[in-house]
Amino acid sequence: MLTRLICLLIGYICGLFQTGYFYGKKKEFDLRSHGSGNTGMTNALRTMGVKAGAIVFIGDVLKCILAVVIVYFLFRNNEQTSIKLLELYAAAGAVLGHDFPFFLGFKGGKGMSCTAGLCLGVYPLITLPAAVIFLVPVIMTKFISLGSIMVSVALPIISAVYIKLGIIDLSGNTATEFVVLMALIGLLNIVRHRANIKRLLTGTENKFREKKEV
Asked: CB of 155 within 8 A of CB of 168?
């Protein structure tokens, strides 16, 4: 349990780097005062433009990967059979740090760029189906939130299937814990999108529109 908490803490510290907030601050643009008010990629994309959205996305992906890499090198020798699970705890911590940064009053992003970093860092083979599940509804409807919600639902299912097929080499309680933790991350992402869900149901959700770059 202590090892898991350490991995969560490492992830949380990495997740505290709020790419959107710091990039906006450099441009004298406070993301918290524009659009949805969160510091994530989608709000940066909508309020500051494609370049800003790309920079925020890359930064938020990399901080999650960094957390996973740190945990891998710290525990790869002593925790060989559960290293993937510990990496997932680190990624979960990064999502928490991104969503709830203490220095911004626990108001950050919605965790999706970090979740992309989770896929790439913990098990890259998850990335392709996750990307397809995200992109298809976004391309068809222009609702970024819809793609985010769908991939959040799909990630634990993909993980369970990969474990069953032996693609992810985990078994027993470790495998179960991996899927449960992935489901909890997905659930958190969905909860963070609860306002979007309400707007989707009432037909008032904002579609993606390209914004002039800031």
From this structure: no
